[in-house]
Amino acid sequence: MTASKLKKIREERLISKAELARKAGVSPLTIDRIEKGKPCRMETRRKIILALGFDLEEKEKIFPEK
What is the pLDDT of residue 2? Predict the structure, then answer.
């Protein structure tokens, strides 16, 4: 599996895993797991989308449906 969209967007914005985790209110380990393709709760996705400055309607840019 290639690098996740989340990792690509995070790196393009020059945000560390720890910084994104802090902004989203989740643990850095959670960010790491999601970037490796592990599933996460809808609430966690919502927090990450908002922490990256996206609207919830733009969720497909970060979490494309498989």
Answer: 46
Angstrom distance (rounded) from CA 48 to CA 62: 9
Q: What is the DSSP string of 21-40?
A: HHHHTS-HHHHHHHHTT---
| Mean pLDDT per 10-residue section of the chain, whose length is 66 residues | 80 97 98 94 96 95 83
CA–CA distance, 20 with 2 (Å, rounded to integer): 20
**φ and ψ at residue 18, rounded to 5 degrees:** -65, -40
So where are the chain's domains? 5-54
Whole-structure pTM value: 0.90
Architecture of domain 5-54: Orthogonal Bundle (1.10)
Task: Specify whether the CB–CB gap between 3 and 35 falls below 8 A.
Answer: yes
